[in-house]
Structures are given as structure tokens and as C-alpha cells.
Design goal:
mainly alpha, 52% helix, elongated, binds zinc ion
Length: 89
């Protein structure tokens, strides 16, 4: 049998990571350049810590961190669903 489920989850994970990256969730101001993207005002190279963006990825530096974030979100969602179903019954 082909692992459809695993593939789907991998795609879902990748979509979530891409979403967070493009929407800037988890971004923190870069501490190396204080958010300016450069080490000083004139003629300096872009900050190496943040590639000149002035932001670092916060808690999304690796796929492992993203997996933890997704697991936390899913836990929060399931807890919210349980709360709603309790109120209905
Ligand atoms: Zn920087």
C-alpha cells in the first residue's frame, strides 16, 4: 500500500511552514543588527544573522520547531472542539 496518509501529512506540514514563512509568523527583531538589517548605517554589508531583513525566525528556525508548533495548535483546536461539544450536550 502506498503511504497516502503520510504523504498528505507531509504536504500539510510543508504548506503550514510555507504559510508561516510567507506571513511572517514567529518573526522576531534581529538582535545582531537591532532590526535595521545592517551592522551600521552606511556601506556595510547586509546583516548575516538575518540576511538583511532585520527579522529572525523566532521559534521557526527548523522543521522540528514547526512540528512542535503544529502539534500545539492541533492540541488547542481539539481542546476547543471538546469545549464546544460539552456546551452543546
Ligand atoms: Zn540582523
Amino acid at each position: 500500500m502506498l503511504p497516502y496518509g503520510e504523504t498528505w501529512h507531509e504536504r500539510k506540514l510543508q504548506r503550514s511552514i510555507d504559510y508561516w514563512r510567507s506571513h511572517g509568523i514567529g518573526l522576531n527583531t534581529c538582535t545582531a543588527c537591532s532590526g535595521s538589517g545592517r551592522y551600521d548605517r552606511h556601506g556595510s554589508p547586509a546583516c548575516g544573522a538575518c540576511d538583511g531583513t532585520g527579522k529572525t525566525r523566532g521559534n521557526l528556525r527548523s522543521v522540528e520547531d514547526a512540528v512542535v508548533c503544529i502539534a500545539t495548535l492541533q492540541q488547542m483546536r481539539s481542546q476547543r472542539r471538546e469545549a464546544v461539544s460539552c456546551r452543546k450536550s
